[in-house]
Design brief:
By secondary structure, this protein is an alpha/beta fold. The chain has helices spanning 2-10, 87-101, 118-125, 144-154, 165-180, 183-193, and strands at residues 14-24, 51-60, 67-74, 105-109, 130-134. Helix 4 (144-154) crosses helix 6 (183-193).
């Protein structure tokens, strides 16, 4: 992957990783310490499977500040509503990233079916500014966006009983906004994968 980084740097491109994560209103179960016979209990008003999916991009380029670009998608609870991102959602996210980054993109993502959809591949093939590469199967440890999701779960979403979908949405957006302004967190997520981006 260091070679991929050199290729991106040589082209003046951003090396961009993508991943999706789902966040539910259902409180996570956790283990903790307490006095014997006094199990701590967190009471919530109701359980809901409704939640939010986030498609996020971590963007790296030698000599530039790391960037985080994301799009949320809320599950409205309707059976006929789409819960996952469509190929058009990914297209729109990549167009927005290209506009914000102002340069070519080398995109690295997993082998999700929608990532390989014929319409998306046809659209991508017609874009000279976009090069797509796929991670090996079952290799989430090579994707720094996994670290962003982990930061959210262990930080801004930890120990919170969400009362409404809006409450969950607000906490996720707040956490992502704060991560966007903390370069060292995004750089740390890349370092955690063991990958490096070498200068040209």
């Amino acid at each position: 992957m260091a070679l991929r980084g050199r290729f991106a740097a040589a082209r003046g491109a951003w090396l961009v990783f993508e991943d999706e994560a789902g966040f539910s209103m259902t409180p996570p179960q956790a283990k903790t310490w307490s006095q014997r016979g006094h199990t701590p209990v967190v009471r919530v008003r109701g359980r809901s499977r409704r939640g939010i999916s986030i498609a996020a991009l971590t963007c790296y380029k030698p000599g530039h500040r790391s960037r985080l670009i994301y799009r949320p998608r809320r599950d409205d609870g309707r059976r006929d509503g789409r819960k996952s991102f469509s190929w058009r959602d990914y297209r729109d996210l990549l167009i927005a990233a290209h506009q914000q980054l102002g340069g070519p993109i080398v995109l690295v993502w997993d082998n999700l079916n929608v990532h390989k959809a014929a319409d998306l591949r046809q659209w991508a093939a017609a874009r000279q500014w976009l090069t797509i590469s796929y991670l090996p199967p079952y290799a989430p440890d090579l994707n720094p966006v996994e670290g962003i999701s982990s930061l959210l779960r262990r930080g801004w979403l930890l120990d919170v009983a969400f009362s409404t979908p809006e409450h969950l949405d607000q906490r996720i957006r707040r956490g992502l906004r704060l991560i966007q302004y903390r370069n060292h967190l995004m750089d740390g997520c890349l370092a955690e994968t063991g990958l490096t981006i070498a200068p040209a």
